[in-house]
Structure formats: C-alpha cells, structure tokens
Write a structure and sequence with these properties.
The protein has six helices and seven strands. It is of the alpha/beta class and 182 residues long.
Length: 182
C-alpha cells in the first residue's frame, strides 16, 4: 500500500497516476529547518522529516513524503502570508527564471531513500495589473512562490525546462520509476 504523507490536493491527484490504492495521511512533523541546510536542500530535508513521521504509523507500507520550494536567486519563496506578500513574491518572479525544487522521500521496510527534482520556470515580465488580477483570484494563497502553474498561474509562465508535474508538486514519472525499482 502507498501512503502519501501530504495534505496537498494536487499531490493526491498526481499520486493517483501511479496507483489508485493510496492512503492520504498528512504529516504533522515539525518543519523547522536548521540553519546549516542549503536552500536547494530544504525540500528534500522536509520530505524526509514528513515521511519519517508518517512511517512510524505505517511501518509495513511504502510511505512517500514530499515538499516543494520555489527558489529565486538562492532565496526560498514559501506560501504567501497574505495578498500583499503574494504581490511581493510575484514582483520578485516577474521577468526572471527561478527553480522549483520538489524533494521526495520514500520509506519502506525500515529503509529510506530521497531525491530532489529541479525544474526551471521563467516568468514573463508582469504588470501591476496582471499581478493584482492574479492575486485577486486567491489561487496564489496556498502555493509556494504564490502561483500555481496548473491554474491561472499558467498565464504568467513564459517557459519551463524540466518536469511540469514537478512544478505542480510531484515529479510523478521519476517517482514512479523509483518505486518500480524498489
């Protein structure tokens, strides 16, 4: 049985591409990150913490933990605290290329492995009106970097290099291949 240690509706939908037989069990792990973890390693670090926490409750199953961060110029943009914060983040991303890093951790039979998938995303230069109209949809409010590429946020994206589903929150093709190899 697969157990997804995530509350994300997007990950729930994507994991169903791998298996219909999935238990959704969000992790309540402490998501504090030590200062010595590099920004490009944070997603994988948190994915391991989440999977390890849930694996205690499902020792005989395959537990998958995930975390996604948006990195621009080495700085992590998390989920916006409010509309003003979303506007701030989108202004930072405007006209730039950033990285979306999704960390995945798999715990099975007392063993674990983890990996990170990186996708480059380039935004068009965005006007104040475009940013405000997008923020008014409220779509950015629960998403790292204040956008969702699978929704209205797609209108902001000029180009991606890498796995589209990684930007949504789960690199399904790579995860599927790893799970098949276990």
């Amino acid at each position: 049985m697969l157990v997804l240690a995530s509350a994300s509706p997007r990950r729930k939908e994507l994991i169903s591409l791998i298996s219909k037989d999935v238990i959704i069990h969000p992790s309540n792990a402490d998501e504090t990150v030590p200062d010595n973890i590099s920004s490009d390693s944070v997603a994988e670090f948190l994915a391991v913490k989440k999977a390890a926490f849930v694996a205690k409750s499902f020792p005989n199953d395959t537990v998958i933990g995930c975390d996604t961060v948006v990195l621009v110029d080495g700085v992590i943009l998390g989920k916006p605290e409010n509309k003003e914060d979303a506007v701030r983040m989108l202004n930072i991303l405007s006209g730039k290329t950033h990285q979306v890093v999704t960390g995945c951790a798999i715990f099975k039979n007392g063993k674990s492995l983890s990996f990170s998938e990186v996708t480059d995303v380039s935004f068009f230069p965005l006007s104040v009106e475009e940013i405000n109209a997008y923020v008014d949809t409220l779509e950015p409010m629960d998403k790292a970097g204040a956008y969702g590429i699978q929704g209205f946020g797609a209108l902001l994206v000029k180009e991606i290099k890498g796995d589209f589903f990684n930007v949504v929150g789960l690199p399904v093709a790579r995860l599927n291949r790893i799970l098949k190899g276990l």
